[in-house]
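Batch manifest, entry 17 of 40.
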Amino acid sequence: ADDGCIAASDSSEKGSCLDYYDPPRLMNGQSLTVDTSRGTFRSEGSCGGTGSPETVVIYRLDRVVETLVISSDNPGTQTATTLYVRYANCLAAAAEVGCIVESPNAVAPGQRLRIDNPSLGEYFIFVDGVAGAGGPVELTVTEVERAQCLNGVDDDEDGKTDYPADPGCLR
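Output type: structure tokens
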């Protein structure tokens, strides 16, 4: 699917990242390798990324989960990263919902950023360098399910859903 296109006859082709980025889509449990050295020098997160090239990946959350875990802690990651995530608006720094930076001297580069109680919708994951560096980064996103008795499902099939309505749920 073309994420920026609403209709063949309109000018929406650019999407919310405009001409600055053409982000690929990442799915739950899949990995995607990007090369930040081929990115742009347009954005930075609240925790870092200044002076380093970045790339952007889109992730769409379509169901309620407890947490999203965005990870560069994967075998294909060869460079330290600054990861920051914006919700619903690719280019607005104020839309940032999380940011983490690792040491430029990381022996085994890779880190994990948690977004707790995420809202449904699109997340723009910025994979930025550290201290001007860039390189291959293998990225994954994992959706962490809500626990039983908090997940909106009648887990024990007694006709009652979740705490406190279900007497089988203590919390």
